[in-house]
Each structure stands twice: as C-alpha cells, then as structure tokens.
Amino acid sequence: MRVYVLNGPNLGRLGTRQVDVYGVTSYADLVTGCEETGRELGLDVVVRQTDAEHEMLGWLHRAADEEAAVVLNPAAWSHYSIAVRDACAMLRGPLVEVHISNIHAREEFRHHSVVSAVATGVICGLGVDGYRLALHHLAQRASPIRHSE
Ligand code: DQA
After folding, report:
1. 126: Cβ below 6 Å to ligand 1?
2. Where would I find the beta strands (DSSP E) of the chain?
3. Ligand 1 binding pocket includes 103 (Cβ within 6 Å)
C-alpha cells in the first residue's frame, strides 16, 4: 500500500527550528525514520516536504487519484488553508493529520485546524513519534490480522 507522508511549510527546518517545541530530530532523520517504519510494516512510504502550497495541492490530488493513504502535517496551513482542506476532502484513502506539538496547548490561533474535520484521525503532541504511530495505524487498518498486537 502506498502512503504519502506530506509535510507543509517550515518542517524542512526540523532539528534547528524551535527545538524546545519541535525537538532535535532533523527533517532528514524524520524521513529515514518514516521509510524504515514503512519497510518494517510493508508499506510503500513516500515522504515529501514543501513550503509551496500549490506543490502540496498537486501531491494531494495525486494521492486522491491513486486512492493512496496520506499522513499529513499541514503545519501552518492547518490553521487557515481552505485550499489544503478542500484537497484533503477529495482523498479517497485514509488521512491521518499529524502535529508534532500539542497545538491545543499553544497559542489560540493554533487550536483550530481546518483540516481535522476531513481527516480520518488526528495525532498531536507526541513529537515526531506521531508519524510512526500514524503509519502503524494505516498498516493495521489495511491488514488488521497481520498487524494486530
Ligand atoms: C505543527 C503545528 C503548527 O501550528 C505549526 O504552524 C507547524 C507545525 C506541528 O507539527 O506541531 O508548523 O503542525
């Protein structure tokens, strides 16, 4: 099963960006971790990051066309991009929204995500481990017996 792990603006700076909030794992390490988890779970994981909204929309359209599963950290777009939400609403596979930080414990403008209402589920506040948990969920969902623990 193909899973796109898509990351929005500024997430390419992980490891140096506000380490008190986002931790010390670099974006490169996040990519490696997702790929390794994908291999363990038998998922075909593709990890991408962009600071350009139109590029993200193109990736989401492609995931919709392929009926692929998506793990999405929409980053700041979570809080205002109706275009990203609309593209997410077109997905035909499951969508797990991930936030590294607990957006509900931060500034008020981060408390609401316009994406959450069209997501299958949301993981937030568990650090980069949220990505691994999202992939485990998708594997379990696709093949409940093989991956049950
Ligand atoms: C984030 C939270 C957002 O509020 C923020 O704009 C981000 C990252 C997170 O992973 O915690 O860029 O999505």
Report:
1. no
2. 2-7, 44-49, 69-73, 95-99, 121-124
3. yes
